């Protein structure tokens, strides 16, 4: 186990800013897509399933 | 790095969604169900419209027969699913931010959570308060557009105010926060609601506090999990 931790520490120091920005942006875009899918989708079946989620989270509904 | 984001977001989303589901089932969902009894008994225009559509030509309106969960366990289960998707989505967003600015303590996670609450709940709710089923509202696409614009402006505005180095940018952030509210949210032509006003205001409080709890949990759990893992 200690071997893997040192290895991952080494990789963490070697991640550049641009790599971190790419990771942050892709995670955010994926996250927003998920929220959009459940909260804002115009597909009727998805709307019906997540109906209470939408109302409770105060997403625009109906 | 990606594993760390995925793990943080996955477990945070799962835990926060469970908390949200519990809070909802005891507090928010009963109010929605109660409001729907008014919706069902009143001959609302929207419902008549749906019936007319169905009678006019069923083949053209697939949506009229779209699947919808039955009240009871089906509905709770599908709401849980919806919560899970939304929670993992928001958690991914937080984990993404952490890769740019690692939280120094779990308390920093709480601040991120409150920031998320302000962006995705408080600011849009100022213009478009949480609605019970059967409340008159402006065109859906317009409201969604305003909602997304407000969330985006609030996110950028808050980030500028917190992280910007000089006063000009901080003030620009403050102005950005205000712009959506100066423009104003799309409003319905007539304000009307099938459910009584008391139920409506009760729902607004329930929804706000539930979301505040949800976001606080999201921030705390994500920062805790993110800090536990080495990159």
Describe this structure in words.
The complex is a heterodimer of chains A (62) and B (231). Chain A contains 4 helices and no strands. Chain A is mainly alpha-helical. Chain A is elongated, with a radius of gyration of 19 Å. In chain A, 34% of the residues are buried. Chain B has a domain at 2-43 and 73-137 and 188-228. The N and C termini of chain B lie close together (5 Å). Chain B is built from 7 helices and no strands. At the A-B interface, helix 1, helix 2, helix 3 and helix 4 of A face helix 1, helix 3, helix 4, helix 5 and helix 7 of B. Chain B: Residues 46-65 have a biased composition (Basic and acidic residues). Chain B: The chain crosses the membrane at residues 76-94, 106-125, 145-162, 167-183, 203-226. Chain B: It comes from Pseudomonas bharatica CSV86.
Oligomer category: heterodimer
Report on the biggest sheet of chain B.
none
Shape of chain B: globular
Radius of gyration of chain B: 20 Å
- Which secondary-structure class do the elements of chain A indicate? mainly alpha
Low-confidence blocks of residues of chain A: 1-12
Mean pLDDT of chain B: 88
Task: Say how many strands of chain B there are.
Answer: 0
Beta-strand fraction estimate of chain A: under 5%
Topology:
The complex is a heterodimer of chains A (about 60) and B (about 230).
Chain A: H1 2-14, H2 17-40, H3 44-49, H4 51-57
Chain B: H1 2-41, H2 45-56, H3 73-100, H4 106-127, H5 140-163, H6 167-183, H7 197-228
Organism (chain A): Pseudomonas bharatica CSV86
Pfam families (chain A): CbtB (PF09489)
Protein name (chain A): CbtB-domain containing protein
Short description:
The complex is a heterodimer of chains A (62) and B (231). Chain A has helices spanning 2-14, 17-40, 44-49, 51-57.
């Amino acid at each position: 186990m200690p071997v893997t931790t040192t290895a991952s520490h080494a990789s963490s120091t070697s991640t550049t800013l641009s790599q971190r920005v790419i990771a942050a942006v892709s995670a955010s875009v994926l996250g927003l897509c998920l929220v959009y899918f459940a909260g804002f989708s115009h597909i009727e079946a998805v709307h019906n399933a997540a109906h209470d989620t939408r109302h409770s989270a105060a997403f625009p509904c109906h | 790095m990606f594993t760390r984001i995925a793990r943080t977001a996955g477990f945070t989303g799962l835990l926060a969604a469970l908390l949200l589901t519990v809070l909802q089932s005891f507090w928010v969902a009963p109010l929605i169900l109660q409001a729907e009894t008014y919706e069902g008994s009143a001959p609302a225009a929207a419902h008549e419209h749906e019936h007319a559509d169905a009678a006019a030509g069923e083949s053209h309106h697939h949506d009229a027969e779209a699947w919808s969960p039955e009240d009871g366990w089906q509905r709770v289960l599908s709401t849980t699913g919806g919560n899970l998707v939304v929670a993992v989505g928001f958690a991914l967003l937080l984990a993404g931010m952490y890769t740019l600015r690692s939280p120094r303590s779990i308390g920093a996670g709480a601040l991120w959570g409150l920031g998320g609450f302000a962006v995705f709940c408080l600011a849009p709710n100022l213009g478009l308060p949480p609605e019970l089923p059967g409340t008159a509202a402006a065109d859906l696409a317009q409201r969604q557009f305003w909602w997304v614009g407000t969330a985006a402006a609030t996110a950028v505005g808050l980030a500028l105010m917190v992280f910007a180095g000089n006063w000009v940018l901080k003030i620009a952030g403050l102005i950005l926060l205000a712009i959506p509210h100066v423009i104003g949210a799309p409003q319905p032509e007539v304000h009307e609601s099938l459910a009584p006003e008391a139920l409506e205001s009760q729902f607004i409080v329930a929804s706000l506090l539930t979301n505040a709890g949800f976001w606080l949990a999201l921030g705390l759990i994500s920062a805790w999990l993110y800090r536990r893992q080495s990159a």
